[in-house]
């Protein structure tokens, strides 16, 4: 357990470093590569202790999966293939939740949405409680990519039932409602209003989630109606004055 904690910490630290911005980006990348190398060395040590321990392979798969998501190099496909290799190796030792979820993520990122949906569905079928709400959201996203909108909605609904505070589930369901709503009818406007309320309340659970703010911005951008007239900010002795060429409620 101590070893697993150490290399999990190394991978997490590498991921955090890779997201850093600034003038020392080259130094940051070197540090990230160094942390990943340390984590991989710890995995190798675990293999030497017990080379048939599937958890090590799953953790290696997670490491390369995360590295793929953060790596924009030409070798990123090789990184994804390495993640798939380790999850497949773990699966050969028997069904486990990490290997099915890992394969689902790999196939999704590789554009193999049908295989991804199958992996997530298998994980939920074998481990209905342990897989939790996030697995339902992942299945919903794969179904959406396949054009199975009703099934995607059902997945998001189930995820919300299991965890009402799961932002990804709430936003996923709301976005599907927004996409299908016709705001020219009373029923359509009610659905739009309800969907926006779902998105607006999401930050109460996760106020740092950029996805929520982005979807809200997109919605209000497309429904924005310009007001005729001109607006100006003028400086005078009393400070800044807001002036408009016509009456406007603020």
TrEMBL record:
GO molecular function, one term: RNA polymerase II complex binding
Keywords: Repeat, TPR repeat
Pfam families: TPR_8 (PF13181)
Annotated Gene Ontology cellular component terms: Cdc73/Paf1 complex
Repeat among keywords: yes
GO BP terms: regulation of DNA-templated transcription; transcription elongation by RNA polymerase II
Any coiled-coil regions, as ranges: none
Repeat (TPR) residue spans along the chain: 133-166
Name of the molecule in the record: Uncharacterized protein
């Amino acid at each position: 357990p101590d070893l697993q904690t150490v290399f999990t910490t190394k991978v997490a630290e590498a991921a955090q470093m890779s997201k850093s911005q600034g003038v020392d980006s080259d130094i940051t990348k070197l540090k990230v590569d160094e942390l990943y190398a340390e984590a991989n060395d710890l995995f190798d040590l675990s293999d030497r202790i017990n080379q048939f321990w599937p958890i090590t392979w799953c953790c290696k798969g997670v490491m390369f999966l995360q590295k793929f998501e953060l790596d924009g190099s030409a070798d990123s496909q090789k990184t994804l293939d390495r993640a798939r290799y380790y999850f497949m190796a773990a699966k050969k030792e028997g069904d486990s939740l990490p290997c099915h979820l890992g394969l689902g993520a790999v196939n999704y990122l590789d554009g193999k949405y049908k295989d991804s949906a199958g992996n997530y569905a298998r994980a939920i079928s074998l481990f209905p409680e342990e897989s939790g709400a996030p697995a339902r959201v992942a299945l919903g996203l794969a179904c959406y990519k396949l054009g199975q909108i009703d099934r995607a909605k059902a997945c998001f609904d189930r995820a919300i039932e299991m965890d009402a505070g799961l932002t990804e589930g709430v936003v996923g369901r709301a976005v599907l409602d927004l996409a299908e709503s016709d705001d020219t009818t009373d029923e359509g406007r009610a659905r739009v209003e309800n969907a926006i309320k779902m998105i607006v309340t999401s930050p109460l659970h996760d106020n740092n989630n950029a996805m929520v703010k982005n979807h809200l911005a997109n919605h209000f951008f497309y429904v924005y109606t310009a007001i005729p007239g001109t607006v100006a900010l003028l400086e005078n002795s009393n400070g800044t004055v807001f002036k408009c060429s016509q009456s406007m409620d603020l």
